[in-house]
Amino acid sequence: ERRGLPFVRYADDSMIFCKSKRAAMRVKESITKFIEGKLYLKVNKEKTVVSYVRGVKSLGYSFYVSKGKCQLTVHPKSKAKMKARLKELTSRSNGWGYAKRKQKLKEYIRGWVGYYHLANMKRLLQETDEWLRRRIRMCIWKSWKRIKMRIVNLVRCSMDKYQAYMWGNSRLGYWRVADSPILKMAISNDSLRKTG
């Protein structure tokens, strides 16, 4: 603090930001001496490293430099973990009904966005939103198990009978159908938004 260096501390972990590698090495040496010599605490030499800010992971965040300033972003591992959790929550194998699945999804997304609100993640949220809508469409399409059921439901969603028949008999995989213009029209973004 006295040196005017920006730092982050959480429980036993801390990060100190310096302008150069040389300065960081000096700070590491002096801080280690202070912690071990004055506070009589052991510093973990393996975890205490000097590193360029890009690629460093802390509490699920990582860092990048833009216009000379250090910015926060969501670490790739945290993104992968989030996507895996969304897959779990939208999986039909968990035996949840529609209402419970919707509630669990809302709770998780709200909590996740709240935790990472300091990060620049506009693009990530847009991409995740698109991916999640496609996944929800896929789950709905899967739930219309039989050809007859698919045709009936497509007609209910304002598709004409011919298109409903053609797509109801489609041999394309679930994921491909979920991204098709026909299913995007049948289960539009607006209808997904209205149902929560």
From TrEMBL:
Keyword Metal-binding: no
Signal peptide start-end: none
Alphabetical UniProt keywords: Nucleotidyltransferase, RNA-directed DNA polymerase, Transferase
One family name in Pfam for this protein: GIIM
Domain Group II intron maturase-specific: 80-150
UniProt GO MF annotations: RNA-directed DNA polymerase activity
Listed name of the protein: Group II intron reverse transcriptase/maturase
Species name: Segatella copri
